[in-house]
Amino acid sequence: MKIPDKIKSCLELGQSQLQHVQAAIEQFAPWINTTLPLFPEYTDHGPRHVEDVLNSAVGLISETAWKKLSSADAMVLTLSVLLHDCAMHLTEDGFVSLVNPESIWKPLDGFDDKPWNQLWSEFFMEAHRFDARTLNRLFGNSDPVRDPPMVPQEMTQKDRMLIGEFIRRHHPRLAHEIALYGFPGPDGTSVPILNNVKEEWRDLVGFTARSHGFSLRHGFGYLHDKFHLQDFVTIQHPTLKKSLTQFFMIF
Fold this sequence. Notes:
mainly alpha
């Protein structure tokens, strides 16, 4: 995966930011280059998609903002783009781990989130009431959905597509939790992601990835509580003060 030259130049201003990004790309490579088992008919969400989003970000950043970007800003931006759609690469095993009542992927303080097993139960009850038009749009036929088995080998294509619709709705949130807890693997295991990056930065990366699923105004409370953000000028957290201010200039 190629990092745009402008972003790479910013990353090289720091001592470790480029190394963190390169390590993350290597960690993501095993599944980001594979097909999407829960989204068989979706467009490409592999390395090309990530590169396109990064190039779009480069095009949105003004020349004035480029002069103010730090290597930390470039790292958070790049890692968040890498993360923002990573939940679409979830496997059947990973889904089972995610919705298990004992799942380690839990709601984060500051968001009005429900446990994943509860979210799945509510979604499935809704899916039982899908009308013929919705069923045809999602699955290509109007046959009612069934409760997918929690054994991947017993899942049908329609089971996978139903699970995929659930993940699609919640993939911004899952990106945030993946940044903090790792990628859902089989049997409740977690595949380490960004484990060479400090937790406070993983949290900010995950929050930025999550932000494409909600209005940024709704995130001010989280930034206030976790990073002591008072406004665009008064930030008590020393390392994040400059970075957060500049990010809001970009957005």
